[in-house]
Every structure is written in structure tokens, then in C-alpha cells.
Amino acid sequence: MNNYYQKNKRTLMKECKKVVEHPLIEEKVLLSHFDKQEISDLKKEVLEEFERLIPQIPFIGGDKNKRMTDFLIHTGWSLAIYRALSKRGMNIHQVGQIIYEISEIYYDSIHFLVKKFVKWYYFSRIAQYLFERNNRLRKKWNYPADFQGDLIKGDGKDFAVGYNYTECGNYKFLKEQNAVELTPYICLCDYALYRALGIGFKRTRTIGMNANHCDFRLKKNYETPRGWPPERLEEFKNYLN
After folding, report:
1. Judgement on whether residues 168 and 214 belong to the same structural domain of the protein
2. Pair (130, 55) in one structural domain
3. Is residue 228 classed as helix, strand or coil in its secondary structure?
4. Residues whose CB is less than 8 angstroms from the CB of residue 201 and which lie 6 or more positions away in sequence, other chains included
5. Are residues 136 and 232 in the same domain?
6. d(Cα 214, Cα 217) in Å, to the nearest integer?
7. Is 99 exposed, middle or buried (0-12, 13-18, 19+ CB in 10 A)?
8. pLDDT in tens, 16-60
9. Sheet holding 200-202: strands in order across?
């Protein structure tokens, strides 16, 4: 089953390289911490680390569970960045900030027509049907490393959808990689994603922050807060307490 990632290795490396070599990421994030030569070495190291991680990403259905599979792949990018930065003496909070800022630039660069379509789609009847169908299928497939939880139906107007995730694939993957401390900072990237899409996103707890479930809520008339600094977020306040 893990051959899925090996078969798609060329595409996965291409996408990771697109992130690592994004000019705005270098200009707005990396140059505030490293000089040009260090950035060049860092990019190379991140790509090498991600290539090493590819066969270790858990299989949770591949293309038939693409949305969740993509989340695991993106977590692989972040883990590769974390390991490269840790070797340079950065602590988890510093790495978390860099990963969040990279995520902001990455998601903001999505074409505005794609953002517009995704925002429409999330509140459509088609999405409501597919959210329910996919959640049912994931329970049926029951891949051990997958995300699992209970769907809360939206009204198709102000409330798109909710999930109470009782199992987090990112948490399981990072725990397997002895990097579970990175999980809370991976969670923060959801704020960057939904802010970029213009979809209201609210959450008060996550499994990665020692809760028994993650309570995702997607709304129309709600402004998603920025995920950094995390101490302002309700989920992080609960975590610190």
C-alpha cells in the first residue's frame, strides 16, 4: 500500500520543491533568519529529508481519500522543515512560527478563482452530500493511520460543516516519527488555510493539544483569526491551561 507514495514520488517532490523555492517564502520568511548560503543549504536539506520521509507516510487510501492524504503529505513537508531547522538550534516555537508563516504564503498564493470556487463549494448541497459520504467511507475503510470522527451537518447557509475528530492522522504520523511536539503547530496551519479561502473557521481544542477530540466548525459569517501568535487562540489557551 505504501507504494502509492513511491509511485507518486516525482509529483510529491515537485510540489515540495515548489514550496521550498517559493520566492516570497525566501524573501518574507527565511531571509529574516538566515543568509543566502544558509537558505540554499536549508532548501537542499529539506528536500532530502522529505524524500527520505515519502515511503514512511502512512497509507490511508491514496486518491480515494485524497483530501486527508494531502494533509499527511503537507505534514511530511513540515516535519522535513522541522528537522532541518532543529539542527540549526531553533526551538519548537520558533520552528512553529516559520511553518505557520510559510503556510500563509503558500495558501495565499492559491489562484483567486480557485478560492472563490472552494468557498462556494463548501456551502453547496453537493459538498454536504460528499462530506457525509466521505466520512462514512472512511469509517468503512478504517485505515489505522486515518482521521476519524463524527460529521456535524451544516445548514448550507451560514454553517457549512462541523467535524468532531476523535482520531487525528497527523498526530499518529508525528507520534510514529517521534515528533509529536510538532502537532500543535501543524494544527495552526488550518487557520492560514481557511483565512486564505475566506471561510470562517472556529476551533476550541485539538487532539494535538491534549484534548480528546478536535472540534472543527466552518461558518460563513465569521472571520477566521490569524493563527500566530497562537497564545491568542482559544484552543491554545486551553492547551496552555
Report:
1. yes
2. no
3. coil
4. 190, 191, 193, 194, 195, 216, 217, 218, 219, 222, 224
5. yes
6. 10
7. buried
8. 999 999 999 999 999 999 999 999 999 999 999 999 999 999 999
9. 148-153, 159-167, 214-219, 200-202
Placement of cell 466552518 in the chain: 218
DSSP 110: S
- The answer to whether 185 touches 100, Cβ cutoff 8 Å, is yes
- Grid cell 527520505 in the structure block, residue: 52
Question: What's the structural domain count of the chain?
Answer: 2
Q: Which residue range(s) make up the domain with 46? A: 3-108
Query: Is 80 exceeded by the pLDDT of residue 2?
Result: no
57-80 confidence digits (pLDDT tens): 999 999 999 999 999 999 999 999
* 3-class state of residue 226 by DSSP: coil
Q: How far apart are CA 215 and CA 209, in angstroms?
A: 12
Q: Pull the grid cell for residue 78.
A: 513540515
- Give this prediction's pTM: 0.94
Summarize pLDDT for 187-204 with one digit per residue, the tens. 999 999 999 999 999 999
Task: Find all residues with CB under 8 Å of 143, minimum gap 6, and list them.
Answer: 58, 59, 60, 61, 65
For residue 97, the 8-state DSSP code is: H
Mean of per-residue pLDDT scores for the chain: 94
| Interhelix angle 66-86/169-176, nearest 10 degrees | 40
Let me know: does 224 contact 196? Beta carbons within 8 Å. Answer: no
H or E segment to which residue 155 belongs: none
Residues 35 and 118 in one domain: no
